[in-house]
């Protein structure tokens, strides 16, 4: 949402603006008072508090958006004098008012014990930006206890992150939230790139086989609202105006599930009151200048570029013909511009600041450096006006013209850092960092928000299983650092090469370490930047040929570990092909399937949740030789000493039987054998009724005579694959990192 919405009505069955200046229906007193008896409803919303969305405006001013106080912002109060603790425990911290103590308690505010801050929690989350909120919603789904704190007084209103990759939406789908995100703004369908007036590229934007296809536009303010609503449904509020001043981690012997080795001191930044909280794990989600990372002494490897972006979200008047698509316009003399269409008819312009203005910005930022490796991270102290940015924008866009056509929704100035933390986890695996605290880079590729989703999807199931005593943390938790750090390294290189092409920067890529002490070797090419169209087009072909799927989130580095063992041929006959063409560690494909005579969907629709492994059994038509192998799998897998019972049964495993049999046929085929009856009781049937060239068996390249079993990890990556009659391979796999049930 880029601006405050005018009143709407649905009186005629569809949404249309109210033609008068009447207040919106939710603000009309008649909706909260019985017209006959005059009694007042228990539910009465607090007045919305309109807040400016940015500090820098156009001649038409700045936009305002409602910031619903307290509960609808998912926020615990800032604390009142005379009460103990960081938040007001007597009112559960949920009240309206200012930091001086004036309050207006919500008449319908919940008064649940779980909303009172706990002194001992499974996880303390420091930071309530996208990464912190994503960690929180996943932990909530696992029933774990946590507190989430943030120094900001309210959620982000608008601006910042602006696009979701298809892979990110697949994770959000597993968490039950994808439709809210995918339906908010436009999808990027076309890409146009100009350099010095020459059109280098004009085509459909990169898409993939995901149900979400391409990049979906949504502003961070809406993203945080969705997460906050989700946390409220779980009885959790963000503690605002609160920071962790310090924390200590006590040494523990082995995976002690009953102790809270982390002791943190929390401080209310407005009242100065402090509180101690104990936790089993701590997650640093506190942004690029992360205090958590700095307190741990983790180096932030990489470099700071001399590239400055001024970012404006606004409505514009322009004769540029491609304003409704994703565009890049480059002027060798003046710099680069990125154009992104937004919701509500708004457009985002990223404008490169060059020349004397860039030098002035650099002096100002360097003059207020802080202890963090990234230096000054304030984006609201600009050193440049909106009109000056518009002037620079028009120099780059010439001969096209751009003018402001509305109040400003968001304005910021960003200096590009390209950095990755030396490690994402402490050696004892008690403290982990993610999101901007672990990696920062340019906007190219839209990896800021998306990487935070991938970090959360990777970390939380590992934390959850470790806390619940279902996994061996010394084996499972280190894979977060190895898997996510190598992904971040590639993000830095890919976005960095793209940045140098657009901004004409002749600067080497950041040197980053791999999993050891040595610098990681990579194959990312830098643009020639020799001014020729041929060199530009050659770079674009090479760059997108290598990174097209990576930029959509569906491809990435594979790191071998206990949860991602190396691909191996048949131990007895190397000429026998593997059970599937999928490599361990890649994204699990998501083909169209059927769940019944009147229900079609995608495979992922049967794979929800955040902490269960999905056992995909591909059994062709369940007849002849493949039937015998399916029976053998069921006999061994569901036996008392099979992997299913040993490692958690239905609590840990979601079994899917993918068959070419139609619904009526499948029911008959599963009735004849006791082992298959057990399978039917435990499995969701997935009917693979498409033609052989487009069915799920083809997507996974499964042999119809032998069948296959594929383990999908909770983060929807392939863990291992095996022949259908080798369930012992799954026992060996899960035995490597899970704990047997007693």
UniProtKB/TrEMBL annotation:
Biased segments, Basic and acidic residues type: 86-98
SUPFAM superfamilies: FAD-linked reductases, C-terminal domain, FAD/NAD(P)-binding domain, Thioredoxin-like
Name of this protein: Uncharacterized protein
Gene3D superfamilies: 3.40.30.20, D-Amino Acid Oxidase, subunit A, domain 2, FAD/NAD(P)-binding domain
One of the record's GO molecular function terms: oxidoreductase activity, acting on paired donors, with incorporation or reduction of molecular oxygen, NAD(P)H as one donor, and incorporation of one atom of oxygen
PANTHER family according to UniProt: 2-MONOOXYGENASE, PUTATIVE (AFU_ORTHOLOGUE AFUA_1G13660)-RELATED, TRK SYSTEM POTASSIUM UPTAKE PROTEIN
Lineage: Eukaryota, Fungi, Dikarya, Ascomycota, Pezizomycotina
Organism domain of life: Eukaryota
